[in-house]
Amino acid sequence: MRFVDMFIYAIKSLYSHLLRSSLTMLGIIIGITSVIVLVALIQGVKDQMVYELQGYGPRTILVSPGDVSKVLTYGSLELVPTSGKLYERDYERIKKIDGIETTSKGLFGRFRVEYKSSAITISAYGVELDFYKATAGSEIEIETGRFLIDGDTRTVVMGHDLAESGFKKKVEIGSILNISGELFRVVGILKRSGSTVSQLDNTILIPFDDAKELMNDSLVKDEIQGIRILVKEGENLEEVEREIESVLLASHRLTPDKKDFYILTPNLANKMVDETLGVMTIFLSSIAALSLIVGGIGISNTMFTSVIERTREIGLLKSIGMEKSTILTLFLIESSLIGISGFVMGLPLCYGILWLAQEYGIPGVVLPNVVLEVLVFSAAVGVISGYFPARRAADFSPVEALRYE
Amino acid sequence: MFGMEKEKMVELSSENSKEVLRLEKVSKVYGTKAHGVAALRDIDLTINRKELVGVIGPSGSGKSTLLRIMGLLDNPTSGKVFIGGFDASMLTELEQARIRGKKVGFVFQSFNLVPTFTALENVELPLAIYDVPANERKAKATELLEKLSLGQRLDHRPGELSGGERQRVAIARALINNPEIILADEPTGNLDSKTGKEVLGIMKSLHEEGKTIVLISHDECVVKEAQKVVRIKDGKIVKITVC
Q1: CB-based contact B102 A321, cutoff 8 Å
Q2: Is the residue at B36 inside a domain?
Q3: For the whole model, what pTM was predicted?
Q4: By the 8 A CB rule, do A179 and A205 touch?
Q5: Residue B43 lies in a domain
Q6: Which of B65, B112, B138, B181 is most worth mutating to test chain A (most A CB atoms within 10 A of its CB)?
Q7: Which pLDDT tens digit goes with each residue over A333-350?
Q8: What's the angle, vertex CA B218, arms to CA B215 and CA B219, rounded to 5?
């Protein structure tokens, strides 16, 4: 029997019990929607994180105290805090490396800030003038006013959201803030970045020397807390990274296995995102795939019922010369059609859910390979689920089938 | 033919041969040897080309079992069945299916039409099994149904047809592959007397056109037009009357 005729036969059979077929398909629809939407949301989060990490700039390297250790069992990267510190001398040595365009040292702390009649504790970066140059290609941009300049003291550049709504009254250029008992004048407000990684929208930037003064009690002599490096255009980022590592190991008199700093490059950032979310993707999509398997059980149930109901019909088909293999194929086509139809109907639902999520600010990215894999899986679930019922149908003796009441 | 090995073909009837079907010492026992029920015992029967044979007997006499074995729907416990030139015991399940599809046409008491198909599609079905193109099988099926006065009912499903119309569709389906023999099991059993007579009239016309037909019934009236009447009781042939 030609495939197209078998296909039409299967469609007619499914259509004749439309409600039952539809309810069975619902199991598959829920399954594929779960898988595609979950994977898409994770991919959206991943893309967002990569984008935000890239907001630091594709030529940017960050050096911080602490160590990144590889956990061999799971292959994930962990940040292990150590007693490591960075110093002014590290900064001076790194500045001399070939291939570096700009370096900027920094401090990071949390301070109590008062403005008008309100007070909050917020994060602050103590940065150099060169910090702004070192952010070329990143998301850091001035909206009003200016950035910190040479000679600035007791001046502050504020994150967008903090200025708008961090205090009872809106902060403007020229506003005076009390930061840990010292008065600072606002000279610039940043453009909104939307980054959840850097949190710049809710941070203040003050001159390095002012920060050092405010944090004097918590720092050791010449301690710094981060170095931001902008690599020259066209330079090999990995080579510069290796050079920085080499300089710091020598400066700290350490071997590579005892490293007490880490160097964050765009590649490493991507890898960290991949590995963190990769495990999550596998875990969540496995759970979602379980729902597809449950849908497959629904198909089996429906097909067994169908075979029993159509026992006499199967006897007839055998009496007019239909072969066992054709009967098997007929029922397999039916069951796989349920799986595939569930996929086809579930796909618009996926896009609908993701559009709704987008409206609420939750990004989702549907990857074509995931859709294809789910399609193949749906068809496979249909075929596998339908195999035993189809086998039963094909194995009926014509006599018994025709006599069935 | 059908890709079968030549040694399996016992050439008993060619197209010019008189014999269509022969049963030799056929017995059928259901159940185990110790507690079995003998539905048929040592049946010897020959059906010749262009014969109209009636098989008559009371309920439980083995008529339907006999028809099923003739049509290769079931295998005998012992004995041999020769159909269309083939020793059925030498055939595989697949080969038996192909014999059924090509050489035998069945007409059942309860019609056995596919409920989701139209009358036309039901008649086309045996052709579809053998990959006949759609337009060709539609034309053949339409012609047959029109011949049986169902030209206006082609697109109706069995649920929308009367009993007589359904049986005519079943007859058309049995004829579509131009089989060597038509086996009809109580073809009027589910019909009123008037409709039953119509169906029997069709059977008679088919016979007059040269078809070989075996009619199974418990009703003497059904087989009164037969050239050969086989009386069966308790699984044994008690009398064969040639008219």
Answers
A1: yes
A2: no
A3: 0.70
A4: no
A5: no
A6: B112
A7: 999 999 999 999 999 999
A8: 85
Q: For residue B209, give Cα distances in angstroms to B50, B51, B196, B203.
A: 9, 11, 20, 10
Give the angle A136-A139-A143 at the CA atoms, nearest 5°: 100
Q: Measure the CA–CA gap between A269 and A175, rounded to whole angstroms.
A: 37
Q: Is B166 on the interface with A (CB under 8 A)?
A: no
Total Cβ atoms within 10 A of residue B143: 14
Q: How far is residue A9's CA from residue A254's CA, in Å, rounded to a whole number?
A: 75
Report the alpha-carbon distance of residue B124 to residue B184 in Å, rounded. Answer: 19
Q: Residue range A99-117: average pLDDT?
A: 89
Q: Tell me how far apart the alpha carbons of residues A34 and A70 are, in angstroms, rounded to a whole number.
A: 32
Name the token pair of B86: 């083939």
- For the stretch B127-170, pLDDT in tens is 999 999 999 999 999 999 999 999 999 999 999 999 999 999 99
Q: Is the pLDDT of residue A101 over 60?
A: yes
Cβ pair A162, A204 in contact under 8 A:
yes
Helix (H) or strand (E) holding A104: strand A100-115
Cα A397 from Cα B202, distance rounded (Å)? 31
Q: Which residues pair with A126 in a beta bridge?
A: A107, A206
Helix (H, G, I), strand (E, B) or coil at A384: helix
Q: How many CB atoms lie within 10 A of CB A328?
A: 18
How far out from the chain centre does Cα A153 lie? 40
Question: Which CATH number covers residue B96?
Answer: 3.40.50.300
* Domain membership of residue B154 as a residue range: 49-75+91-242
d(CA A164, CA A177): 14
Q: How many domains in chain B?
A: 1
Contacts of residue B102 in chain A, CB cutoff 8 Å? 321
* Chain B residues close to A13, C-beta within 8 Å: 116
Sign, CA dihedral A250-A253-A257-A263, equals negative
Instruction: Dig out the tokens for B186 from the structure.
Output: 């109580």
% pLDDT > 70, chain A: 90
B53 within domain boundaries:
yes
Residues across chain B:
243
The predicted pLDDT at position B13 comes to 41
On whether residue B33 sits in a domain, the answer given is no
Question: A324-359 and A368-395 helices cross at what angle (nearest 10)?
Answer: 150
Q: What's residue A196's pLDDT? A: 61
What was the pLDDT predicted at A42?
A: 85
Give the distance from residue B21's alpha carbon to the nearest chain A alpha carbon, in angstroms. 17
